[in-house]
# Entry
Amino acid sequence: MSQANSKLASFPSKGFGCVMVLIFLAIILAAYVDTMYRLKKAKEQVTAAKMYVNAMNKVQQSHFLEKAAFTTSVKALEISSKTETAYHYSLYITKKTAFNYALSPKKELKSYVGGVFVLPAKEVDAKAAKDKMTTASILCEADSAGTIKPAEPTYKNGKIACGQGTTEVTR
# Structure
């Protein structure tokens, strides 16, 4: 083998190691960027879900104070959301309560439930008329991620609380 041939034969083994290291680093960088993008997207979806359920609560409160009844459909709430979200929104209404849901279709995201309760105004303001009614709301986050509907908040003995397996986000 000539000297020129031996140089060519050894070149790929030296350069190949550098190329492999660069490819390995590129793969790691791509995986990191993808993970950061997914985390950012998930955080945006969670924030949107919280904001939307909170808005649903506020609209339900306003609607009840104006018309003495809750809105019976998500569409009737007329809340527009410019943020794309993976959550499914729904509600459940009784005469004295509105439960508003943001249910996650993904097992890695938490779901949310809001509750709007009709209660005697005296419980909120001691100066209120005896027969006057008002509303109070709460927003709760499921303690665990998943696609299961979270437990509804409760109103007992003059206190609003998140249901079992959920934690209060806002009132």
